[in-house]
Amino acid sequence: MSRQAGCNVWLKLENMQPTQSFKIRGIGNMCAKAVVEHNAKRFVTVGDTNAAFAVAYSGRQLSTPVSVFVPTNAQASTVRPKIELEGAEIVENGRTIKEAYDAACLFVQNNEGAVMVESADDISVISGHSTIVSEISIQLQRKEPAAIITTIGSGGLLAGIITGLHQCRWQSVPVIAVETHNTNTFQQSMLFATDQSDTRISNGGSGANINSSKRAGNDPDKKPIVGVETSKKLSLLPPLEGEPDVDSDTKDSTNGKPTTRTDMESTAQLYGRMRSGNESRQPEPTVATCLSSEHICSRALELSQAHPVVPISVSEAMAVEACRRLLDEHQLLVEAGSAAALSIIGKGLVHQIVPGLDHESHVVVIVTGGANINFDKLESYRQRFPYPAPIIAKSGHEIFMRMIDAAQPASNCTTSAATGSLSTSSVNASPAHVLGGGPLTKNKTDTAASLTPVPASK
């Protein structure tokens, strides 16, 4: 991958977590706090998903029973047997996932000590997800990456990544948030925010201008496919050391006007419209089930206004191709939705989004994982989608298409197959690198902080 991309590509393998996805980071943190701080007696969640798998695992580790509500007669996902193996109770109730959710909420209300575990907006969940960035910082020996590529579903992971980046003082590192075309709720939300902001500005109105700072990337003469450009004047993150806090006297860097309370209120209203604009959107049938979400959590939308974030959507065929290539080249099988992030590397789009990458640049791809995959599903994808897949990517209001891959330029990256840990100088020794994921327990997290460079596929 690194040779093909012409830069050092790192894979943060969250599929190696005990529950095979990043979900255990945030959900494990929330569940542990619920037991220690609130004496939780039972965890309740909805849907036989990767999140429910993480809840079930956490419940077993914390000796706390778990109830997973699912619609009656709903087809079981491939994750359900894993959830049951962890000892969780499957409760069938309602005809739809919404009815199952309502039943779960009623159960929590009527049972003292029961806690509803949701995987997006909770601050404990976001805090847990933020640890992924602190691990990356250690594993890269504090070298600042040129970009972090991740997929986005409901937005909890994105919120955690941005939070972690600011904690590591990497607030200028762009995040490329990848979805598929029929799961692009985040992309639609950000387009709505951009259009609304542009309309207010063109009408002479005040408010947060999300188009006031430079785009992601270091080359001022070359623009990425899209940049959700951000303004720091309404940063919702705590100020870093030496930075002034945001208050009513903060000056707008573009026009010298103070940012008023009215501006902040109008921005909050904008976030509300960004959410409500997608709440009526029903998820379409997709192979990227882990990315399917009716709306994005409010914290992710807020933080995306305070950090360079590049929303981009790719075709399902591109996601499936990346899934197959990860299996062929690294013998790792993940959900197609998770692999969508890798399609940005495999198809060379990363150079369009982040100009100026070279053999000294580091790009980290979060392989979010997911247990809802098996060989039967992969075979059905193989029969359904073309291989190799044509490039069809959407960014902003633009669509980038190419029917065949152009020849990839040779990289200056070395091709040593040497294996080393972070204490050695092997970061650049191999053009394909693997970053281990950190499990729930602290001792395992520490031992997982090493990495194994893998030879690039030829």
Q: Which helices and strands occur, and which strands form pairs?
A:
Blueprint: H1 2-5, E1 8-13, H2 23-38, E2 42-46, H3 50-61, E3 66-70, H4 80-85, E4 89-92, H5 97-110, E5 114-116, H6 123-139, E6 147-151, H7 156-167, E7 175-180, H8 185-202, H9 261-279, H10 298-303, E8 309-314, H11 316-330, H12 336-346, H13 350-353, E9 362-367, H14 375-384, E10 391-395, E11 398-402, E12 432-436, H15 442-447
Parallel strand pairs: 1-9, 1-12, 2-3, 2-5, 3-4, 6-7, 6-9, 7-8
Antiparallel strand pairs: 8-10, 10-11
Question: Key terms for this structure?
Answer:
single chain, 458 residues, alpha/beta, Rossmann fold, 2 domains, 8-stranded mixed β-sheet, 4-stranded parallel β-sheet, 15 helices, 13% strand, globular, disordered C terminus
Outline the structure in words.
By secondary structure, this protein is an alpha/beta fold. It contains 15 helices and twelve strands. An eight-stranded mixed beta sheet has the order 11-10-8-7-6-9-1-12. A four-stranded parallel beta sheet has the order 4-3-2-5, sandwiched between helices. The radius of gyration is 22 Å and the shape is globular.
